[in-house]
Every structure is written in structure tokens, then in C-alpha cells.
Amino acid sequence: MRSFFHLQLAGENHTPPFAASSNTAPLWGMESSSHPSGARKPWAESSFTLIELMAATTVLSVVLLMMVGMQDQMSKAWSNANRRTDATREARAALQMISRDLSGLVTRQKTNMDGFVGTIAMTNAGLPFVYSSNGANPGGLTLPSGIQSNSSFLFGYSGKKPSGTDSLDLAVFGYFIAQTNTTNINGFVTTNYNLYRYTLDPASTVNALNSVASGALNSLFPKITNNSEILARNTCNLRILFYSSKDAGKSVVDGANYRVFSASSANFYSGSKIHVELTTYPEDSAQKISISSWTNAVNIQKYARSFEFRVDVPRTITH
């Protein structure tokens, strides 16, 4: 191969590729003293056109919209999961409290299976518990408005084993499902069903027990509306079933039970188990269901979740 110097010596007129001419633009970053008229400046060749900027902006907008949509879906999923967790937590806490009260349900026995004797108020006296299998008022009770139909309710007294021999701790309790009207921050009123727990303070419990001889239900369970609070939200069903033993003298009926004053075994509940089932909606599902369709079987099957348990209660001993 001939070298550049060989071409020069041979008299050939070649311009080396690296030699600058008057028409060659200066390298980027180097200034030139003059530019021919109409020549493009080096920085003009590297700039974006308006169409390119608009295209880039459009692509960026689409990407941002996709990211916002994904974040919104993730936020909704997280919120719904939290609501379902809250509903489950409330239902389990409610069942635990119901179980505690029913495990000491007073059934007017003289001596329970543990062998301790109750107070005079419990001995052959009209101390009933009030039961409804379908939400209908059996009479004698002043119930809150909006009690859920076809749902059970129960009012009674719960006794705990005392530390001594001549005393018994008693507490009034009641469970029912009723309507609740709630006003949100936008001023709209929403209506749903919630599980309520009824209870009395110690002084009111003593006053109620003073009416035990008459057996008047409004005196035994006074001011139900004012002394009830929400225990679990968005409940659509409460079932309470009493299981009688083989030699049960008398089954549980809708209304006041065991108001007779005889000690005969035919007048006492001798079963040993109570079955309770509570069904609730998660908050996100409850917002979609109207109050008229609250107990619809299809909605309950599709959206609701049920919790149930059985509890042992003191069995009546009549001898």
C-alpha cells in the first residue's frame, strides 16, 4: 500500500482526510470566526422539533395514567382487605362476648351442675330469659324500632360462679339486630343493620332484680334502646338455637321462658347446648346492598360470611 508521503512525492494532488478546508465546519465545541450565509449551526442540528416534543409528552402522559390507574387499584384492594379484616375481627369479638354470657345463662334452676346454690331471686322465682326465633316481639318488652325480621334475639341474666357460698354475680344482657341510620361527611344518610348488645350497670341491675317476683319483662329488662350499643356492624343474620336433652321437660318457646313458680322438672329447661350463628357483610359489600335487599339469600350467599359456635350451659338439676 502506498503511503501518504509516497502519493505526495508522486505528484498526486490528494488532500489528507484530516486536513481542514475553508468549507469544513469546525468541530463541536470549537468556535469559528465566520459561517457561510444559510449554513446550519451545529447546535441547531441537535435540537428537538415540536412534533418530537409533543410525541414524548404524549407517551409520558400515557405512562403516568397507567401508573395512576395501577396505584388506584392497589389502594382499593388494600382498603377492601382491611375492611374485611375489620369485619372478621368484630364478628369474632362479638361471638366471644355472646359465648361468655350464654355460658352462664340463668335458667331458674335451684342448683346447677357445679353444685353452688343461687340467690333467693333465682330460687323458684320468675326470672325468665326472653327469646325470639324470628325477631317478632312476644309482648311485654319495649324493643327498639327497626328490629330485623326473621332474626333471633335473646335477653337474659348471666350468672358467674362466686368465690363464696351464698352469693352469685349476675349481669343483664341482650343481643339483637336492628337498623342504624348513619350520616356520612357528605351529608347523605345510609341505613344498615348492626348487632347490638344490651347491658345494665350494677345499680340498674339490682333495681331490675327487685321486680323479679312480678315477672314483668319491662321491669326485668328496662330501657333497652338507651342501654344498647353496636357490637358488630353490617350484620344480616343472627340465629340462636336451643338443644334440649333427651329428658327435657319443656322446650324453649318464643317469648318469656320459665315464668312458673313451681320447682317441678317439667317447667325447667334441661338442655345443655346453645348454637349461635352470626352472619355479616364486609364494608365494601355492604355499601353496594340496599336495605330492602339486605337479607336477600343471593346476596348473603355471594357476599356475606358466617361465624358460628356451640356453648355448654349449666344443666338444670331438680332434685
What does this entry look like structurally?
- The chain has 319 residues and is of the alpha+beta class.
- The protein has one domain (72-312).
- 27% of the residues lie in helices and 22% in strands.
- The chain has helices spanning 4-9, 42-45, 50-102, 202-209, 217-220, 283-286, 297-303, and strands at residues 130-132, 153-160, 169-183, 189-199, 228-232, 235-243, 255-256, 273-280, 305-312.
- It has a 6-stranded antiparallel sheet, with helices on one face. A 3-stranded antiparallel sheet has the order 6-8-9.
- A hairpin with a 5-residue loop joins strand 3 and strand 4 (189-199).
- The longest helix is centred in the first third of the chain and has 53 residues, at 50-102.
- It is elongated.
- Residues 1-11, 109-124 and 259-268 have low confidence and may be disordered.
Distance from first to last alpha carbon: 129 Å
Structural class label: alpha+beta
**Biggest sheet, in brief?**
6 strands, antiparallel
Report strand order across the widest sheet.
5-4-3-2-1-7
